[in-house]
Amino acid sequence: MQFEVETTAGDARLGILTINGESLSTPNLFPVMNFYGGGAKTSVYGGGIHRTLKEFMIEADAVGDGSFSEYFDATMTSVSSLTDYNINKDRYDDYLDKPIKEREAFEGLESIIFADSGGFKFLNDGAIDGSDFEVEMDQETIYEIQEAFGADIIVNLDHPIAPDDTHDDRIRKAEKTAQNIHKFLTVSREFEGAKYLTLHGYNYSMMDEFLDVITDSVPEGVLREGFDGIALGSLVPKKDNRSALIQAVTDCRELMADWGMGDWPLHVLGISSRAAPILAALGADTFDSSTHIHNAINGKYYQSLMESTMIDDADFSECDCPVCRSDLLVERMNGNAEYQKDISGAVAMHNLIITKNELQTIRQCIRADGTEALVDYFEDTFGGDKTMRRYAHQVVNKSLGGYFA
Ligand SMILES: [Zn+2]
């Protein structure tokens, strides 16, 4: 893995992440993708709306002749998605039989695939419970799955904290995560790709204490040698709390610098895509989100990253994305489709394009001289939104040197 920061604007950094021959401009978004949704090869392994998104990703005939694969230059998949479809043992074995990118169904896929550890999901039940089998989910099994997927970025199995955890709870979880890290570094010695260390905490002192606990069992040098990046987790319960996000990411960057990890890439796990500009400005390099899918399922069509309308009220002629320019797909978004997934899948693809294009604009602003372009971008994007404006000002003052820098 290689991570090169080309230039900065305030705390925001413009970089290139290269893993296993694939390169990604950062800051950037990893859209959530269920590569295995319970189905067989003929249905691109199924998964309802996920199936439709995979058809866009591989530019299948079923979604017309537009060009969509570029929006999947990075993807986030979860080990725990295997639990969502009640699959049987044969299917489970089939899914693990061959890496994603070596499969005929995904031929030519050029994507940096990030596989999380499912820590959030396995915390309570600790197992994949299929229709006729059960697999105990420990660190070793999870690594085997990540490797079988052919993932490019992986994380250790973690024990995420919750907002109402006591101090003792958090220490206990950090100790368990430390055991997993120890195991993870042992079993993943031959792994070809990047390993990200999961970091938990809402502020500097919590994260610092987390690393103190971890380094009680895994020496700091081993940690620094064994990992390539940081994955900041546990923010999902707070994902709509912008102040908490701002504090966590700001403190995380400071902590990384203090622990000698300042030049590592920082990934923020599971965010709302509307928070992407703020996270980018604070110096997060990558993040993953499924907001474009959830909003589409709820009938929401993005007019911009900040504004959406119900699909029935949308004017598709105002968008020049390859979904809205396709007669076939507009027809579906107008409700003329056999399955709901064909309607919401097209909307999800449009929503994803809007989000990915926004990140491209943000990268251009970082590339420009000084912080002015990014500050202007914040003003244009959030100026009209009462709730977001306050946070935007906070970010401009904190990370971009203020309005009159
Ligand atoms: Zn569109």
Could you characterize the architecture of this molecule?
By secondary structure, the protein is an alpha/beta fold. The protein has a single domain, classed as Alpha-Beta Barrel (TIM Barrel), CATH 3.20.20.105. The chain has 14 helices and 15 strands. The strands form four sheets. Strands 4-13-12-11-10-9-6-5 form an eight-stranded parallel sheet, covered by helices on one side. The chain has a three-stranded antiparallel sheet with strand order 1-2-3. A hairpin with a 2-residue loop joins strand 1 (2-9) and strand 2 (12-19). The radius of gyration is 21 Å and the shape is globular. It starts with a strand and ends in a 6-residue tail after the last helix. It binds zinc ion. Residues 319, 321, 323-324, 350 line the site of zinc ion (ZN).
What would you call the shape? globular
CATH superfamily: Queuine tRNA-ribosyltransferase-like
Total domains: 1
Number of strand elements: 15
The share of residues in extended strands comes to: 15-25%
Distance linking N and C termini = 35 Å
Run of helices and strands: EEEEHEHEHEEHEHEHHEHEHEHEEHHHH
CATH third-level topology: TIM Barrel
Unreliable stretches = none
| The top level CATH class name | Alpha Beta
Structural class: alpha/beta
Reported CATH architecture: Alpha-Beta Barrel
Number of DSSP helices?
14
Bound molecule kinds, no repeats: zinc ion
Radius of gyration: 21 Å
- Overall mean pLDDT stands at 93
Q: Largest sheet at a glance? A: 8 strands, parallel
Strand order, largest beta sheet: 4-13-12-11-10-9-6-5
Helix content bin? 40-55%
